[in-house]
User: Fold this.
Amino acid sequence: MQFAKAEALGNDFVIVDAGQLAGKDASRVARQVCRRSLDLGADGLILFRRTEVSGQPRFSMQVFNADGSEAEISGNGLRCLAALLVQQGQTTAGRLVVQTGAGARRLRLTDSRPPRYGFNLLMGEPVLDPAAIDFQPDPPGASLVGYPLPVEDRIHPVTVTSMGNPHCSLLVSDLEKIDWEGLGRLIEVHQCFPRRTNVEFVQVLDRRNLAVRFWERGVGATLASGTGGCAAVVAACLNGVSDRAAQVHTPGGILQVHWQEDNQLSLTGPARIVCRGQYFPVED
Assistant:
């Protein structure tokens, strides 16, 4: 199986043309290839398809988390796929549209220094409707901003949103003084989130700079998250502690997020092709 591996601020993906997995269980393949040390190792598997419409290329993608579950969308994964498509010459205009499980998303090439590329990505509007997020607050109708989420013996004020996938964001005073990985693990599977959730821990540095740590549904701790970075800025804005344009400082680097006046979220950041090659799966 031919593959490429790419990373966006340390959030890494194995990328495969979906045609190579015809008749195979993509969830099982994802669990295998994403294993660290034993296999290629990645946070997720991206399957992409190319079709032609009136002579123009059209692309779609599926994202599978390391545990084999399917995600609706990945902001970093989109940039990784776009980097591969640009490198392969599958798009030459510097602009492309990719259909995801959360709808079509538009990307614009902003930097090209192969194998590293930069993209601006329009992520759509944040979702703030509990039913659309698949969030079940108690009592029903409770505000999604500052919602008192009980976790073990403590109440944590959280802000719940969706970027096409569910997010739960916590504002914290000092990332170094909390066990965010332990708390993220618990919140991911909280009963208020029937389909689990991604979790962000947000420390406000100033109104235009946020330090964020990410616990991703089906993956665990990751070095960066595109949708998570957007969710962090939206949550900080809704709580009145951030401007609508902010830098998101992740362990892997900086993402630029702008919650535009038209309610669209703009995400700008890099992606790098790590390698391309042939993968030999272990057969049962």
